[in-house]
Amino acid sequence: xxxxxxxxxxxxxxxxxxxxxxADALPDYELLELLLCQALxxxxxxxxxxxxxxxxxxxxxxxxxxxxxxxxxxGVGDGVVHTLKLVExxxxxxxxxxxxxxxVIATWQAVLDYCTARLGKEKTEHFRVLFLDNHNALxxxxxxxxxxxxxxxxxxxxxxKRALEHGASAVVMHNHPSGNPSPSRADIELTKExxxxxxTLGVTVHDHLVIGRSRHVSFKEAGLLPD
Length: 227
Fold this sequence. Notes:
This protein has about 230 residues and is of the alpha+beta class. It has helices at about 5-20, 30-40, 45-55, 60-65, 65-70, 80-95, 110-120, 155-165, 185-200, 220; strands at about 125-130, 140-145, 170-175, 205-210, 215-220. It folds into 2 domains: about 5-95, no CATH class; about 105-220, Cytidine Deaminase, domain 2, CATH 3.40.140.10. The chain contains 10 helices and 5 strands. Strand 4 and strand 5 (about 215-220) form a beta hairpin.
């Protein structure tokens, strides 16, 4: 039988360290290396893991990178992109679990963590809405619109219409501007319009979160929600 490739011993040592000491025992590129082994079991993926970390900075940066940007890195094909995006989706889904069916006010940090994971790395503006029941528990999280680098069009009546279709009594709106998360005048006016439309039909706007890459702005905390 042919000798095993040289990287097999290294890979087995990595797995043993992970199994015995946990993730904290491995630097980012080695954790990523273990993941890439699933996509490329017959290749030495250590150089690729290092290239990805060098390009995107962190594991979170790698997982959140756009598919096109990932494929610009030498050695990344469809299989690697699929594996990375699958893990990203699992992470977002895991963060959503603590807020499903539970009052968002009681799990506010979990809401922020979820929204940041969902939108914090987007390159263009996305406008999503969390629909809440009369106990402020999450019914659904849906994207209403996505736009360009610095602009997205949203129709207040569509938000309220969708809330009524869900049987929701409250909403938390959140969007991502690629760059500064400080609310624009258009954001403020939009929130007022949605709140006004919802007030006549029993739908309350609890907050409007503007999610950036490293921080967020809450309209409620900033005193920007209409009375």
